[in-house]
Design goal:
Largest sheet: none
Number of helices: 40
Oligomer: single chain
Radius of gyration: 38 Å
Structural class: mainly alpha
Distance between the termini: 56 Å
Number of strands: 0
Organism: Maylandia zebra (zebra mbuna)
Helix content: 55-70%
Protein name: Adaptor related protein complex 5 subunit zeta 1
InterPro entries: AP5Z1 (IPR028222), AP5Z1_ARM (IPR055450), TPR_AP5Z1_C (IPR056856), TPR_AP5Z1_N (IPR056857)
Length: 799
């Protein structure tokens, strides 16, 4: 893990003697008393940090040395701040020492010292004391203090609120709200004095204040915001920036819980009246502090939205505009959730902003907070949200499926609001083919999101198409790769490696296949007729990294799909899904490991569906018999075939479904008998291996079960089993290469033969009644077992 030199240094630090450590403390103390701290001091500080951090025991520094380190926190050199903070974090704070720093040096607070103060707060009382000092500093700051004295106050306060929101009293919350209003709305509109470059012409005229400017270079005609620029900034302008950065957190922490009742009451008032009252009171200074802060936050965000429409000269300023828009819309969402009357004043602005930004995909990440606003307040304002969802669920995945940041933000939006979206956006479930593009493109990063989202996409109307889509997810992944390559590599440009699939993607005759895979919405059909053709065109994509990663996620999603569908589907839909499983078991992209896993999932859930609804076996007996009667399925779909045969033998019974007739049992028996005879009388086809003993044993067991329900079939089973024993006695057979497996098969056959000699016993053993399968004797008060269990319990738990 470490190099030899590093391990040597760590070992020396751990084994340092106490006497040597005290001498090192003395030398370091002398260095820190000097006027200038050179490289030797920095090296010593680094060595001290190594000594303190290399051992699991926490050390205590001498009092004077710790005071020096506390004083070093205010050093103008950031390297000294970092090292002193790191050293103090590794030591036990002296009693009251951290509070002394808080009281004496709060005016020179910086981010490193703030982090140390928070880390050394051992109780909520310490945090409350820290908040009191911070707010006292805000309230009564000397006017002659340094210009940077408040720079870190709000970030520290914000961190405290994150860890312990209850540490502020009502009066302190009121004070902070008032200060935030002052900084947000009444910051200076003149530029701060920039750093002078010196020189002969430096004088009073060169330092005359000038108005702040907008991002397009024009002079600002309104109050200061984070989107105003200048050569320098005053302290209250910096506090304006800090206030805006913590405003949403402050509103969510302290305002939401206090205004829920008010918002509920106001929401029943007529919108136009409330809007008029709010508008007339917006300029009043008589509002309570919380309502006044809410009003100023509303005005501030509207000004930011207006400023974002200006053409910025720098690309970085354009990105800043987008970031501020995201925060502004989120804050507007907060204040509208607190005060319903603001919804009617805000929606015209939000609607215009969406109209301005929706045409450019580069604004995608800004449009998500707008979609959140529409989701939260669109119903109350009676606004048509259809265009918003067409952009979010339609255009974004279609054109930006390869943008990882947008994919993360959009899926996070869905996860946080899945219940509201299901309730208010009914067309959401129709966009699953489009949303799955994110997963098909970057499966490892997105699979956790879709594990949570997939149940919301499963409905009785979309279940069949969704199952087909999940099975074709590797095809979607390959198609997205081809689409990306097609746009990056023009047709006229020669490609170093020839891709047959890329030529097919560009071929108009196959365009319909790929367009179906890339469809935006569900409803155009469950699947396509030429699915095998599509798999042939994409055969070379089987070893592409994205495709193989995508294929690994499909079994996980299929388990979630079936676990969800059994809770909402009726028997008719489940019967259709069984047909899809049987059909699609041979229509999968040729990835051997993928095909094997899909067959395993199908087998698991086929058993589960039939156990929940045994009548499904009779309903789908024709298709199941057709599948089980194909000898090729024994070799190509061993797992699924075994479970289909077991289901037929287990549930094709009058006890499971009264419609089960003797003719149906006989036809099933004959189909399975023919397959068993064929695979045990000849060698396996070329290129295949011998069938597993599990397949042959399951076939024999199924035949024995069916014969026990129709005694006319018992002689035929007995004849086959006796022949099987005779054939195996002559030596090895072509259909079983392992001697132990052959012994297991013969043993199973002899057991079944012995059972069938007594038909009544065979039926009781092979088809036991329900009360034998699921006994309730321990609950039956008419038998002695419950009494015995209670007696044993009282003896073993006697006090």
């Amino acid at each position: 893990m470490y190099s030899h030199a590093s391990e040597s240094l760590i070992k020396q630090a751990r084994e340092i003697q106490e006497s040597e450590l005290q001498k090192f403390y003395s030398r370091l103390m002398k260095m820190l008393q000097g006027k200038e701290l050179g490289h030797d001091t920095v090296d010593s500080l680094q060595r001290l940090h190594l000594i303190l951090s290399a051992t699991k025991y926490t050390r205590t520094l001498p009092l004077e040395l710790q005071k020096r380190f506390v004083a070093l926190l205010s050093s103008p050199a950031e390297q000294h701040q970092v090292l002193s903070t790191a050293v103090l974090r590794e030591t036990l704070p002296l009693t009251g020492q951290e509070l002394n720093y808080n009281q004496d040096n709060l005016g020179q607070l910086n981010s490193h010292a703030a982090g140390l103060l928070l880390s050394q707060a051992v109780s909520k009382g310490d945090l409350s004391s820290l908040c009191t000092q911070l707010l006292r500093n805000l309230e009564s700051r000397p006017s002659e203090g340094p210009t940077h004295s408040l720079m870190h106050t709000l970030p520290v306060l914000n961190n405290v609120l994150t860890h312990s929101p209850e540490c502020l009293s009502e009066d302190q919350m009121t004070l902070v709200s008032k200060k935030l209003v002052d900084w947000l709305r009444y910051a200076s509109v003149m530029q701060g004095v920039g750093t002078s470059s010196g020189g002969f012409f430096t004088g009073p005229r060169s330092r005359q204040p000038v108005p702040i400017a907008e991002l397009d270079g024009s002079v600002s005609g309104d109050f200061f915001t984070v989107l105003c620029v200048g050569q320098g900034f005053t302290e209250d302008q910096w506090m304006n920036v800090y206030s805006f950065s913590m405003l949403r957190h402050w509103l969510l922490t302290y305002h939401s819980s206090c205004s829920t009742v008010d918002a509920d009451d106001r929401s029943e008032v007529d919108g136009s009246v409330v809007s008029m009252v709010s508008a007339t009171s917006s300029s009043s200074r008589l509002l309570p502090p919380k309502e006044r802060l809410r009003e100023k936050a509303f005005q501030y965000c509207q000004r930011l939205i207006e400023q974002s429409d200006r053409k910025a000269h720098k690309k970085t300023d354009t990105e800043l505009q987008k970031a501020c828009l995201v925060e502004a819309v989120c804050i507007l969402d907060c204040v509208c959730a607190e005060d319903a009357s603001l919804v009617y004043r805000t929606f015209p602005c939000i609607k215009a902003l969406f109209g301005r930004l929706s045409s450019e995909l580069s604004n995608a990440r800004v449009l998500l907070p707008i979609a959140q606003f529409y989701l939260n307040h669109g119903e109350m304002a009676a606004v048509d949200c259809e265009n918003v969802w067409k952009v979010v669920f339609g255009r974004f995945p279609t054109e930006l499926f390869n943008d990882p940041f947008l994919a993360h933000e959009l899926l996070r939006f869905l996860r946080l609001n899945v219940e509201s979206i299901e309730l208010r956006v009914p067309q959401y479930t129709l966009y699953f083919p489009n949303l799955l593009k994110f997963l098909a493109w970057d499966s490892p990063a997105m699979v956790d999101d879709f594990v949570d989202l997939l149940p919301s996409m499963v409905t009785t109307g979309t279940a069949v198409e969704l199952l087909h889509t999940l099975l074709d997810l590797p095809c979607l992944s390959a198609t997205l790769v081809l689409q990306h390559r097609s746009t990056c590599l023009p047709i006229s440009e020669p490609v170093g490696r020839s891709f047959v699939s890329l030529d097919a993607f560009r071929n108009p005759s196959f365009r319909g296949l790929f367009l179906f895979v890339l469809r935006t919405e569900a409803g155009s059909g469950d699947t396509i007729d030429r699915l095998s053709t599509l798999h042939e065109l994409l055969v070379e994509a089987a070893d592409w990294p994205r495709v193989t990663q995508c294929a690994r996620t499909v079994p996980v999603l299929l388990h979630i799909f079936f676990n969800t569908i059994v809770t909402i589907a009726d028997e008719k839909l489940l019967a259709h899904l069984i047909l899809v499983m049987l059909e699609r078991s041979s229509l999968l992209l040729n990835i051997p490991a993928y095909i094997k896993e899909i067959h395993r999932v199908f087998s698991c859930h086929l058993l589960r569906l039939c156990k929940l609804h045994p009548s499904l076996v009779v309903n789908q007996s024709h298709e199941l018999l057709e599948f089980a009667g194909s000898t090729a399925n024994v070799y190509s779909k061993e797992e699924l075939y075994t479970h289909v045969v077991w289901v037929l033998g287990e549930y094709l019974s009058v006890s499971c479904d009264s419609r089960c007739s003797v003719s149906l049992i006989t036809s099933c028996f004959e189909a399975l008998e023919a397959v068993l005879f064929e695979i045990t009388s000849s060698a396996p086809p070329t290129g295949t291996v011998c069938p597993a003993p599990k397949v042959i044993n399951t076939l024999m067991s199924a035949l024995a079960k069916l014969a026990s329900r129709s005694h006319d079939l018992i002689p035929r089973v007995s004849l086959f089993l006796s022949k099987l024993r005779t054939v195996t006695r002559s030596g090895s057979v072509a259909w079983c290469s392992d001697e132990e497996d052959l012994v297991a098969i013969v043993t199973r056959g002899e057991e079944l033969w012995s059972l069938l000699k007594a038909p009544g016993v065979a039926q009781s053993v092979l088809t036991p009644p329900p009360h034998v399968i699921a006994p309730q004797w321990h609950r039956d008060t008419n038998v002695a077992l419950p009494l015995q269990l209670r007696a044993l319990t009282s003896l073993t738990h006697s006090q």
